[in-house]
Amino acid sequence: MLCALFGMPKLTVKDLNVRGKRVLVRVDYNVPMIEMAKDGQIVINDVTRIKETIPTLDYLIEQGAKIILIAHLGRPKGQRDPTMSLRPVANKLADMLCHPVAFVDDCIGEKVEKTAGLLQPGDVLLLENVRYYNEEEANDAAFAEKLAKVADLYVNDAFGAAHRAHASTEGVARVIAKRGGQCAAGLLMERELKFLGEELEKPERPFVVILGGAKVSDKIKVIDRLLEKADSILIGGAMAYTFKLAQGHKTGKSLVEPDCVDVAKSAVQKAKARNVQFLLPSDNIVATLVDTGKLNKKGKQVFHPENPRLNTQPDIPDDAEGFDIGPETVRTYSDVIQKAKTILWNGPMGMFEDKRFAEGTFAIARAVAGATEKNGAKSIIGGGDSVKALNNAGLGDRVTFMSTGGGASLEFLEGAVLPGVAALSDK
Ligand code: 3PG
Ligand code: MG
User: Fold this and answer.
1) C-alpha to C-alpha distance for 217 and 61, rounded to whole angstroms
2) Catalytic annotation on 122?
3) Cβ contacts of residue 171 below 8 Å, gap of 6+?
4) What average pLDDT does range 135-159 have in this prediction?
């Protein structure tokens, strides 16, 4: 059983009798790919999202389901863009599953129906990018009917796309349910909802939240909600500079959102009122932006950060921009993290893609891994860039859970009902 936050408990794949049934499984195989310059071969850069669906697929194979996988890749906007084909994913999945994976270059229509009709128990079929049709994102009812044509049951394992009310994540579930078919969460979906939902509903304390990333506006709803739950909130990333601005400090050329100063102030006030420790960086790594003389694609001047240095003053010099948290902040934050029993981390502490500004993020990653291993803390990494940062630091396997969602994790942490979850059958 799965307890979906703010809703009825939902069915999971283990509640279904799938033997001999055609099960349409929505997965999030929106994986980063590059085309190799030398031979034009498409290489998948990060297979995490594929890997994480394997437990659900292994289970369905073992149970004798006829498995039809549906997914999107990129944003082809209703066009058949060959660079966004899922065919390379079918090959990769077959390798990883050690099981053949058939592929059809469409997701609806005769070819799909014919192949699906030939499936034997345990067979796996992957359909082509569902976003080759505009009707997918429009959640078109007739299109959802077409998708549902080949399915007896529906399983959604695409947590990363569950914040989208699209035909393959929402509409198709409604169609199948209306026909009396069951719609259930996959095992990855179940894990995501457990760690980002249930585990944070009643966290073991102290509960420490680390929030970074560029913008306060992206995170304000999450901050507001977590202020109800957390014992400590540690702020990093460029959004810290908007908080600095709210305190009346100079932020130099740092990225700030002046129109978010009021929300920043009220977050700090709410933290005080609720007795939540709310920490901002006490030092920063700053750099001076130097004009490269080049223009970007939009015709804007390109600046490069030069002369990285430590700034321990509350004000950032007029000519400088903040790019990372400093060593004193790392020490203060690490002390708080060390005592935590539950940790949620979303958003990097600085521009970690540039190694001159990576140390703050990597040091916090080490502190989180340390608290997990030495202190038995439950550490939950809320997806997107923080997962990338942890993997870059080589610490991905030393935390309790890393979400496969980006936007979906953020919306779920904000307390939003995800359409892809809401559409599943109640227990
Ligand atoms: C993601 O990668 O964030 C998900 O697969 C959803 O993709 P989207 O943001 O293009 O809807
Ligand atoms: Mg996205």
Assistant:
1) 44
2) no
3) 139, 140, 141, 143, 144, 147, 165
4) 98
Task: Encode pLDDT of 250-263 as tens digits.
Answer: 999 999 999 999 99
Annotation marks residue 215 as catalytic: yes
347 is catalytic: no
Atom of ligand 1 nearest to the CA of 408: 3
* Segment holding 277, helix H or strand E: strand 277-279
Judging by beta carbons within 10 Å of its beta carbon (0-12, 13-18, 19+), is residue 391 exposed, middle or buried? Answer: middle
Q: What is the residue with the minimal CA distance to atom 9 of ligand 1? A: 407
Cβ partners under 8 Å of residue 414, min gap 6: 221, 222, 225
Nearest CA to ligand 1 atom 6: 161
Residue 3 confidence class, pLDDT cut points 50, 70, 90:
very low
Return the bridge partners of 213, or none: none
- C-alpha 293 to ligand 2 mean position (Å): 32
Atom of ligand 1 nearest to the CA of 75: 10
Residue 259 CA: distances (Å) to CA of 76, 105, 263, 265, 314:
34, 47, 8, 11, 21
CA distance 154 to 185: 9
Cis check: omega of the bond before 121, within 30 degrees of 0: no
Give yes or no for a contact between 314 and 286, defined as CB atoms under 8 angstroms apart.
no
